[in-house]
Amino acid sequence: MSASATVRVQSAEAIAAQAAHTAPFVQWPEATTVFAERAMRLRQLAKDHPMADFLNFAAQMAQAQQGLLQSFAAVPLPDAAALDKAALAGLPPLGVATWQRDPAWRTALRQLVQSLQAQSGGTAALQQTLAQLAEADDDTLERQADALLLGEMHRVNMAWSSLVAAALQVYWTHLLVALPKALGLGANQSVIGRVDDLTRCPCCGSLPVTSLTQTVGHLPGQRYLHCSLCNLQWHMVRSRCTHCLSTRDISFQSLAHQDADEAEAARAAVQAETCGDCGHYLKIIHKDLDAFVEPVADDLASLTLDLLVAEAGLQRHGVNLWLLFGESDEPEPPPEPLAAPPKPGAH
Question: Measured in whole angstroms, how far is the alpha carbon of residue 111 from the centre of its chain?
Fold first, then answer.
């Protein structure tokens, strides 16, 4: 059951005046823990959850991702001139549609498959999917990566999608965290600036998976969008729709009990921030209310909230690359690794 709440926030002008020059524009992923923390949260959320099998499988993937990131080989990176060129054009420097992927991502995918194959358990369908991915040739994998990154769901093999996405996440996260050092800068020193499209990641141009509020320095409640691919977070004031940037008709829904009052619903750690102007929504996750929340994990575990807002005709602005939906044109796709959750609506 659900409860809706209108959360009182400052005006767009007041929030911008308070935060624009104080909160850093981007928050960088911590290379030593980013996927490990996701795995830990997924295992925590899996306990007594209706999607426990799926969440535990996702935890295995995330744990394997951490190991892959820690040992990722050196790959080509954009130089200072390329960064300047992208900045002048208002484009992300590692855009999924323009950056030439290094074959190292395919190596990461095959290592991920081997790691999962070596672990005990898993359904026969999962083992078959892993075997087919292990045998897939380079061209097939590159076509799948293109389709997934460009959002061409009819070309995506849904049985493979979460695994292909996991390898691509490791690759792009490695590109991001390796960039400052390659330019002779300090760790996480900002080399990523604002781009023309504020609703997409300023590093790779991907959609966010959720937004996240957290305390930054001495500033509580700062809202950042979390990239679904490279794990960068970029700042956006809380009074704006993450799809159309409107500030007029923003409201929130949560999975609070049906008898919850408005104040209790407003305190839910995971909410859907909806826009009456464009009919889109994105989940907003409050780290100040639950210190253990993690954007990808809590998004997966709150699929029921997507179902709720989809019933109202709202479309999701962001995407979780581990839970894609669409009609595949791939001939005779292999079985899915696990039973698919119900479709929440268009993404």
Answer: 22
